[in-house]
Amino acid sequence: MTNSSITDTNFSTAAVRPRPISWSWLGVVPFLLFTLMFLLLPAANLIIGAFQDAAGNFTLQNIANLSQPTILRAYQMSIGISAASAFLGAVIGFALALAAVLGRLPRWVRPSLMTFSGVASQFAGVPLAFAFLATLGRTGLVTALLFNIFGINIYRYGFNLLSFSGLTLTYLYFQIPLMVLILTPALDGLKREWREASAILGASTWQYWRMIALPILWPSLLGAFMLLFANSFGAIATAYALTGSSLNIITILLYAQIRGDVLHDPNLGYALALGMILITGISNGIYIWLSSRTGRWIR
């Protein structure tokens, strides 16, 4: 009885003993404060503003105004540019990553490609717009070289940098490197044993990719496409610096509503931003879900 009582007392003491305070949370506090101040609070402010009028009263008129033809065309233009740049960026980036990881190229190619991709994926805004204007503008370097050497005037054949195709081409500069960075770990996750087992069973290279590799990589490819779509859909600095207000895309229209002198309606701008949050949120949600599925395969 005595031993049993002592044991029960020890268990009771251990059960009521308070857990020591973990100081590890201090390392996360700056991130939580940054997220609260620059993401959650601004998002909450624009969501509230989307349902208010200029006097601060509740209204659904801002949401109803999203059905205006100009706004619908802006959404369609932005979705089209984002989808085109995401698709082309995914295809070209997949080819580059595949060549660097599995293409048996010289060993210096992969680190050089990854270094360039890390820099180019963050190169956007005014510097990128100026670079393309200086390269492919009407008086750009490449435009002048093509005309002086080959007698080809690309603008006479319909090319225009300040257009749907021109902005898509500009976005590809950071979309392709981003695809390389996203897909390289997935390609590294393809086990050599899978390729060897398929070869032992008599499968050709095409059969291996069609029946084994691509089904495993498909969630990564589709998820990367959705991430590239969201990445270009929210871009404004590059588009505004390159085209000004000549191209009707949603980010430029949003900027005009909030900061413009003519189309100044901040609450309508909040509604436009709310629509963008919904579209990019769905894209990022699909990317996260597909990435988790790919992670289970690789593990």
From TrEMBL:
The chain crosses the membrane at residues 20-41, 79-101, 113-134, 141-159, 171-190, 211-230, 236-256, 268-290. CDD domains: TM_PBP2. Keywords: Cell membrane, Membrane, Transmembrane, Transmembrane helix, Transport. It is a multi-pass membrane protein. Its main location: membrane. It is found in: Cell membrane. Residues 75-287 form the ABC transmembrane type-1 domain. The keyword Amino-acid biosynthesis does not apply. Belongs to the binding-protein-dependent transport system permease family. CysTW subfamily. PANTHER family: INNER MEMBRANE ABC TRANSPORTER PERMEASE PROTEIN YDCU-RELATED (PTHR42929:SF1), INNER MEMBRANE ABC TRANSPORTER PERMEASE PROTEIN YDCU-RELATED-RELATED (PTHR42929). This is Spermidine/putrescine transport system permease protein.
